[in-house]
Amino acid sequence: MAGQLRTLGEQIAPDLPLETLNRAIVVWTRLFGMLSFELFGQLAGSVDPSDEFFDHTVEQLADFLGLPPTS
């Protein structure tokens, strides 16, 4: 995995630290999953209200990336 990440980093973002690139990939896949669940109704009936759950999750992902908190 480390070799693949290094190769990807060299190709698309040579100045980005590999740990940041790795975290960006994790966040992208989690966000994609959250959107898919929301669009196809998988959150309905299990996580209500789903908009609060989505907001909370996005805040967690932003924190995981090291982005500053919103006010």
Architecture overview:
By secondary structure, the chain is mainly α. The protein is 69% helix and 0% strand. The protein has helices at residues 2-12, 18-39, 50-65. The chain starts with a helix and ends in a 6-residue tail after the last helix. The mean pLDDT is 89.
Describe this protein with a few key phrases:
single chain; 71 residues; mainly alpha; 69% helix; elongated
SSE layout and pairing:
Layout: H1 2-12, H2 18-39, H3 50-65
In the predicted model, the low-confidence regions spanning at least 5 consecutive residues are none
**Major beta sheet summary:** none
The general outline is: elongated
Task: Report the strand count.
Answer: 0
Helix content: 55-70%
| Ends distance | 36 Å
Mean pLDDT: 89
β-sheet strand percentage: under 5%
Q: What's the SSE pattern?
A: HHH
- Output the radius of gyration: 15 Å
What class, by secondary structure content? mainly alpha
Number of helices: 3
